[in-house]
Specification:
- This protein has 466 residues and is mostly helical.
- It has one domain (23-465).
- 74% of the residues lie in helices and 0% in strands.
- The chain is built from 20 helices and no strands.
- Helix 4 runs antiparallel to helix 5, helix 6 packs parallel to helix 19 (424-433) and helix 16 packs parallel to helix 18 (401-414).
Length: 466
């Protein structure tokens, strides 16, 4: 039975808490654990992996749990999370690396820009960012797109904010709401959501959200922030150009292949709904996230790598170079899974369920608020998503499949809320555009907030329909 918006389930995920602490002590333990996490990340600039590990141990100790059980809980959560999403993140990184190194991303950019006019340029930029943002990590997308934004703005005599905000919105929306990005994947794993349905609903929410926060908001942001494109960066493009670039059609098809395969599986599950059906068995295999992403990588070796003239050594080097930079991301995601498991095993889920019943607040809104609070404190969307998913996981116990996916999207939307000075992305955007702190807040920070609030509104509206 679907869960109504103003209801919360009465079943927690933790079967046997590792501590007998009451709600008061658990609440204090959560606050202490998160405070340590925030302090280590913001004040001492400690890597999020170490901060999450230490924060988990502190939380468990403050809750009165035996240290050996806290360690077992953290280790188990870390292992299961990496096992669940680690390979998917790695495959997504390889596909993104092939897209960037082969010139496929540049091909998409140039093809769409060639058909855009000065009036439609902001819309073209959000489309570009949405397409190439599917397999690319947010930071890589920024490094790839910002030089293009500045070049287009200078040549067209337009405000770089008018052109850049749509691109940033497209990248940020994909980063927060659409798998296979690490945050959504980790949240899906934490609340046991269906990836295909989450992907479908994520795209449904992402498109209007990117339009509102991108081309529509850019009109106002360009009036508030008047900056000229830095001349010394306007002609920068991506890494060394390959011998030739792959064609537009095969490039887009490769990027969209895993999305299509996973959506096919979700559609067959809804229409056929027969485990003994041959059609459903085939769909379950090809639509499995591991198979879908693996298929895209294998196809990409030919449609992107070989099409760009890459020999075996170059292809092997591209795959190897894609895996190194994601080590930190995998460790953060894994430690976040450990932090989540300590929260669940300590009985924090039961505490949140009891509190939320007293508040009579929507489970989706509560999950969004939790993610917003952690995002504002830590500055990291990924940490906010993983931590909030751990806290909100018990809320998914009695939800329908679709509502569990909406819970993931609510958390993802909250994790993007108001990026400010404790977020590395804030400074990256500030420096690339040559803006002051105040101008970055008026453009980037407000844009992120619009994405977060619009995403929440759309999620709540969908919860009334499905």
């Amino acid at each position: 039975m679907p869960l109504l918006d103003d209801e919360v389930p009465a079943v927690a995920l933790a079967a046997e808490p590792i501590t007998s602490a009451g709600h008061g002590q658990l609440a204090i333990a959560v606050l202490v654990g998160i405070a340590v996490l925030v302090l280590l990340i913001t004040r001492f600039k400690l890597h999020a992996f170490l901060a999450l590990t230490i924060g988990s141990l502190v939380l468990g100790a403050a809750a009165g749990a035996p240290l050996d059980k806290v360690i077992d809980s953290f280790s188990g959560g870390l292992g299961s999370t990496v096992a669940g999403v680690g390979v998917l993140i790695a495959l997504g990184a390889i596909l993104g690396k092939l897209l960037a190194d082969s010139g496929g991303a540049d091909r998409i950019v140039d093809t769409i820009l060639a058909r855009a006019t000065a009036r439609t340029m902001p819309w073209a930029m959000v489309l570009i960012a949405g397409v190439i943002g599917l397999p690319l990590f947010f930071e890589i997308g920024i490094v790839l797109l910002i030089p293009v934004v500045l070049l287009v703005a200078r040549r067209g005599g337009q405000s770089p904010v008018l052109i850049g905000v749509p691109a940033l919105a497209g990248l940020s929306v994909m980063h927060g709401l659409v798998p296979p990005h690490p945050g959504p994947l980790a949240a899906i794993d934490a609340v046991d959501a269906d990836l295909g349905i989450t992907l479908a609903l994520g795209v449904l929410v992402a498109i209007p959200t990117a339009i509102v926060a991108g081309p529509l908001f850019a009109r106002y942001a360009a009036r508030w922030v008047d900056v000229a494109p830095p001349a010394d960066r306007a002609d920068e493009r991506t890494a060394v150009a390959p011998e030739r670039r792959p064609a537009f059609g095969p490039t887009v098809a490769t990027v969209l292949l895993p999305v299509v395969l996973m959506l096919i599986k979700s559609l067959v599950d809804i229409v056929v709904d027969d485990p003994d059906s041959g059609v459903q068995r085939v769909a379950d295999v090809i639509g499995d996230p591991l198979i879908a992403l693996l298929a895209a990588v294998i196809v990409g070796l030919f449609t992107l790598g070989r099409a760009a003239g890459f020999r075996r050594e170059r292809l092997s080097g591209a795959v190897e170079s894609a895996l190194g930079p994601i080590a930190g991301i995998l460790l953060i995601v894994g430690a976040g899974g450990g932090f989540k498991q300590v929260l669940i095993d300590a009985g924090v889920g039961d505490m949140i369920l009891d509190i939320s019943e007293d508040w009579n607040i929507s489970a989706l809104l509560l999950a969004w608020l939790i993610a917003v609070g952690i995002r504002l404190a830590t500055g990291s969307a990924t940490v906010a998503t993983i931590s909030a998913a751990g806290l909100a996981a018990p809320l998914a116990a009695d939800m329908s499949t679709a509502h569990v996916s909406l819970l993931v999207l609510a958390i993802g939307a909250g994790s993007i809320f108001f990026s400010h000075v404790n977020d590395a992305g804030f400074w990256l955007v500030k420096e690339y555009f040559g803006m002051s702190v105040g101008q970055t807040v008026k453009s980037w920070s407000v844009m992120e907030t619009i994405i977060s609030v619009t995403g929440l509104v759309l999620v709540l509206l969908l919860s009334l329909i499905i």
